[in-house]
Fold:
Amino acid sequence: MKDINRKLYELFLNNNFLPADSKSHSIIKNFNADNHLYEMTACLIVTWSDEYNTLYKIINGFFCFVQFYPNGSFAFLINRPFLLNDNNELQQVVDTLFDSSLKIGIDTIYIKEVEERFLNDFKYLKGYYINAVYDNNMSEYIFNAQSILEMRGSKNEEKRRQMRRFADNADIVLEPITKENFNQCIEIEKTWCDSHVCEECKSFVGCARKTTLIMADIFDGIVYQGFLGYVNGKPAGYIIFERESEENAYFYFAKSTISNFSMHLYYNTIQNHLSSCKRINLGADVGKSGLRLFKRRLGEFELQKKYLLTIKREK
Structure:
């Protein structure tokens, strides 16, 4: 961690921020359930906490996180209650975060992944200059289950043929992920890592292998579910998701060591377990061109736009 981030990290620890690690998962998860925070996934916050040295604190009913990145930068995430009663509450939160940063000479703060529908809340803040920039890399892809299952369009014709050919020529077995067999997911991640360069992941979001190790601590097979895939008797991929309600689901992790098998895992999971979902969040493409192309060709989607806010005090 860069020196400036270390100072800021220690400053927030001294101001009653806490590590957002696996020990804090139940607190974050339960708070979200009670307060209906927008698109707040305790799973992603916690599993990436080691990579980003994430801290959290509840301020005026807002779940506030601060993440520190390898390049020396940092940013806040503010997950607001879905029903915001008073804009003064948000004002106090931003004042608190800004004043804390100012103590070590930081006069500009960044708030990332702000949904478009909540941008207006920040317009009412007093005493700040705010610049909002659309973040295409962190905007999330929302699908209807049937859109993915139909996989329409000429661009998907070859993908459909590949899936049929793969299924016809391979012995595929899927089994539910449990605490007992989760180690197979870690082994699959290791196999994938062995055939890739670490910088490939770090240049985008960071080490996915670390997140899998943390996921092993919080996975329960009930709230978080998933499937291990075996091809011709060998572990070849896994997928992890959460069904938040009858109509909503969120995919967290999918990894395979065989070409085309990730699509098989997605398709099978949606077809057999999530076919009634009207809103399936496949997450962001984090700027990866291949992942962006893959998601945009799956079917009709809604892009849940996210913004990065730069906040400075007015002079």
In short: The two ends are 32 Å apart (CA to CA). The longest helix spans residues 87-102.
